Amino acid sequence: MFENLSNRLSGVVKTLRGHARLTEANIQDALREVRMALLEADVALPVVKSFINDIKARALGKDVIGSLTPGQALIGVVYEELVKLMGEHNDALNLAAVPPAIILMAGLQGSGKTTTTGKLAKLLKEKQRKKVLLVSCDVYRPAAIDQLKTLAQQLEVEWYPSDVSQKPEAIALAALDYAKRHFHDVLIVDTAGRLAIDEQMMAEIKSLHASLNPIETLFVVDAMQGQDAVNVAQAFNATLPLTGVVLTKLDGDARGGAALSVRNVTGKPIKFVGVGEKLTGLEPFYPDRMASRILG
Ligand code: GDP
């Protein structure tokens, strides 16, 4: 998805050949290429600007040592800065709460919230042997409630029934009570999403958050949304104390810039990435692996 960046950078490696150190003059073209590639990949402009400045500051005057060519030295700096931009290391899910640990799922409709809820349940059940309860608080779309129920049945994970006549908060609190009485380790609360951000939706999820006090509040965002992903992330981050981000649909032809911007604009770690429609399509996010992928 970052073919452009790796292609552009390999051109840069050639142009820098023969120089013994990186200077303002000789890295100018290289930085222009990096900048263009990032913008083409939908990375938000302010993020691109500060990224380029950081690379420049670190690369300038760098002596090229050993067998490295100046181009390789610059790519080394780009790699390290990409890793830094995406948060350095993997942030694991935090379940250190008096059981049940509550995970609240937030995001727009179609972002992949319900699918991710199922994927997380599978991971927690199979990899961590957790007893998981799922509940849907999407009282606006009966289909969403059914979708979660179907996923739960498929995964052989328990779900707490809800219907559209109930209030989201009442559903969530009843599910929490049930989870406590039945010794569930984790309760994952799927919430309503709208096609766009609106005040009512934000107020609703805010009050759900206040009454549940979840240990994890995950913001699910579609990487295919490009620049828009950043705006939506900012709006959710301003409303809710998010603890992490799940970036979905990275398997598609998303230009991937969201992966670079979302962490930067929210300050919240990307904990997982969605890499397919199937329930196995969820992976922990590793900034170093992503940076390697980006650089090709
Ligand atoms: P919600 O409205 O946020 O709950 O979104 P859904 O979970 O219903 O997902 C919307 C669509 O995106 C569905 O068709 C999912 O199969 C699809 N989807 C979700 N996550 C991924 C992913 O990581 N990759 C791909 N390719 N599709 C996904």
TrEMBL record:
Leading EC class: hydrolase
The protein's name in its UniProt record: Signal recognition particle protein
Residues engaged in binding GTP: 107-114, 190-194, 248-251
Principal location class: cytoplasm
Subcellular location: Cytoplasm
Start and end residues of each SRP54-type proteins GTP-binding domain: 269-282
GO molecular function: 7S RNA binding; GTP binding; GTPase activity
Annotated TM spans: none
Domain notes: Composed of three domains: the N-terminal N domain, which is responsible for interactions with the ribosome, the central G domain, which binds GTP, and the C-terminal M domain, which binds the RNA and the signal sequence of the RNC.
Organism listed in the record: Chitinivorax tropicus
Assembly description: Part of the signal recognition particle protein translocation system, which is composed of SRP and FtsY. SRP is a ribonucleoprotein composed of Ffh and a 4.5S RNA molecule.
Gene: ffh
Enzyme Commission number(s): 3.6.5.4
Reactions performed catalytically: GTP + H2O = GDP + phosphate + H(+)
Family, similarity comment: Belongs to the GTP-binding SRP family. SRP54 subfamily.
Cellular component annotations (GO), alphabetically ordered: signal recognition particle
GO biological process: SRP-dependent cotranslational protein targeting to membrane
Function of the protein: Involved in targeting and insertion of nascent membrane proteins into the cytoplasmic membrane. Binds to the hydrophobic signal sequence of the ribosome-nascent chain (RNC) as it emerges from the ribosomes. The SRP-RNC complex is then targeted to the cytoplasmic membrane where it interacts with the SRP receptor FtsY. Interaction with FtsY leads to the transfer of the RNC complex to the Sec translocase for insertion into the membrane, the hydrolysis of GTP by both Ffh and FtsY, and the dissociation of the SRP-FtsY complex into the individual components.
Keywords: Cytoplasm, GTP-binding, Hydrolase, Nucleotide-binding, Ribonucleoprotein, RNA-binding, Signal recognition particle
